[in-house]
Amino acid sequence: MALNAKATQEFMPIKEVRDGIVVLKDGGLRAIVLANSINLSLKSSEEQRATILQFQNFLNTLDFSVQICAQSRRLDIRPYLFMLEGRMKVQNETLLKLQTREYIEFVRNFTESVAIMTKSFFVVVPYTHTNFKQSTGVLGRLFGRRNKEEQKLAEQVDFEEKRSQLEQRVSVIEQGLGRCGINSAQLGTEEVVEMFYKVFNPGELEGKIKLEG
């Protein structure tokens, strides 16, 4: 398992996740915006055309590239069943306790026979700019310690400048999606890490939640 994890990290272009922003090894930044979905089939023909046209206009107004990713995963119903088990234990009414247990069994059997999928939609917003480079040569060797401190400060300034530009792009994305009737929000650090963990470890959480029978 350790060897597989190390191999995966070597292929990942991600250096770190800082303040909800993905920092790539080449110095580029990425923000990840989670967007909800809308059901066009529930809208009238006029509303469908208006929504599609608005989304088309939104894409045409962008002066930078984005990636739109859809993640489809089987819904893990175990936490919900675990919560119901806990409520059933503290239930004093015999009839309600029986009904809760029957409901738990119904949900468990139904989800085991039918694959219930959940979809998540992400917009990856990029920003890339020239990085500061550390001094080399004779002066670099003579004043290496000071240059390292200056390099660290320069990298922080570079990050803040790029983050400011990236946040402006994120704002453009969120406002454009809002005009299409799509709610969105930028992921924080923990949410980004969790998202990538689930992507690279799709079956890692299986079996970790036990329901008491």
Coarse morphology? extended
Mean pLDDT: 81
Helices and strands, in N-to-C order? HEEEHEHHEHHEH
Query: So how many helices?
Result: 7
InterPro entries: TraC-like_dom
Protein name: TraC-like domain-containing protein
Summary of the model, kept short:
The protein is α+β, with helices and mostly antiparallel strands. The chain contains seven helices and six strands; from the N terminus they run αβββαβααβααβα.
Q: What does this protein structure show overall?
A:
The protein is α+β, with helices and mostly antiparallel strands. The chain folds into two domains: 2-73 and 119-200, no CATH class; 76-115. The protein has helices at residues 2-11, 45-61, 78-89, 94-113, 138-142, 144-179, 189-200; strands at 14-18, 21-24, 29-35, 67-74, 117-127, 184-186. Strands 1, 2, 3, 4, 5 and 6 form a six-stranded antiparallel sheet that branches. Helix 3 runs antiparallel to helix 4. It is extended and about 70 Å long. This is TraC-like domain-containing protein. Residues 19-197 form the TraC-like domain. It holds the Pfam family TraC-like. It comes from Candidatus Nomurabacteria bacterium RIFCSPLOWO2_12_FULL_44_11.
